[in-house]
Write a structure and sequence with these properties.
With 241 residues, this protein is an alpha+beta fold. It is built from 7 helices and 17 strands. It has 2 domains: 117 residues, TonB (TolA/TonB C-terminal domain), CATH 3.30.2420; 84 residues, TolA/TonB C-terminal domain (2-Layer Sandwich). The longest helix has 11 residues. The radius of gyration is 19 Å and the shape is flat.
Length: 241
């Protein structure tokens, strides 16, 4: 069963909104685009009271089968109208992360209010997936490591050719079981190039990861060459993730 922060029971995961870390920590870790750094940050405990509609993620059957459980943390940007504009995974197993991103598409918040009127804000959402196992000795000692050894990671099939790159950005992509990029996390690279790197990988094609014959969502680290503009190169001096 799953328990939301309101105490309702839904499925086989526990959902809770909690305070995790501050805006400055995310920016320093390279997980926040520069254009989001100015947004108001609302701690998760307060943001939980803003939720008007939420959908609890389904526990992925393959995650159950492989005894995968644990926390998925998502950085969320909410529009002035209360809809989730962006949701990026900060941490979490790929099977569980995809389920959370799918569920959050329909979440609705009460907008944050400022003196000029409603404003965008960002917060963190933690979703905890927990299996109910009657006998603890039935749980494998290292289920995630066991699964990782059995998964063949996704592969880049084709990437459009570009001109000489002025810079590169290293991204950790979350590739769905359909071979689509559903999320990306910045691992290294200068801030002015990040959005362009994300636009570039959106045009790449992938073979999804495989667990046996089954396609599964998985992470893939890639180096993305980015064509630079003079203004971007100037702004990038002395500024990096």
């Amino acid at each position: 069963m799953a328990r939301t922060s309101g105490g309702h029971l839904y499925g086989a995961s526990a959902l809770a909104l909690v305070t995790a870390c501050w805006l400055a920590i995310l920016a320093a870790a390279g997980q926040m685009p520069a254009d989001e750094a100015h947004l108001v940050f609302i701690d998760a405990g307060k943001a939980a009271r803003f939720v008007v509609k939420r959908e609890s993620p389904e526990y992925p059957p393959l995650a159950r089968l492989n005894y995968i459980q644990g926390l998925v943390r998502v950085q969320v940007v909410v529009t002035k109208e209360g809809w989730v504009q962006d949701a990026h995974v900060v941490r979490g197993h790929p099977f569980l992360a995809v389920a959370v991103l799918k569920a959050m598409r329909s979440w609705l918040f009460r907008p944050a209010k400022a003196r000029p009127g409603p404003e965008e804000f960002q917060t963190l959402v933690d979703v905890n997936f927990s299996l109910r196992i009657r006998k603890i000795d039935q749980l494998p000692r290292q289920p995630e490591q066991d699964l990782t050894r059995q998964v063949r990671p996704p592969e880049v099939v084709e990437r459009p050719a570009g001109s000489a790159a002025a810079a590169s950005v290293r991204l950790r992509l979350l590739v769905s079981s359909e071979g689509r990029v559903v999320d990306s996390q910045v691992l290294a690279g200068r801030a002015p190039y990040v959005d362009e790197a994300r636009r570039i990988v959106a045009h790449w094609t992938f073979h999804p990861a495989r667990w046996g014959a089954l396609p599964v969502p998985w992470y893939l680290d890639v180096e993305v060459p980015v064509e630079g503009w003079p203004a971007a190169r100037t702004a990038a001096e002395g500024r990096s993730w």
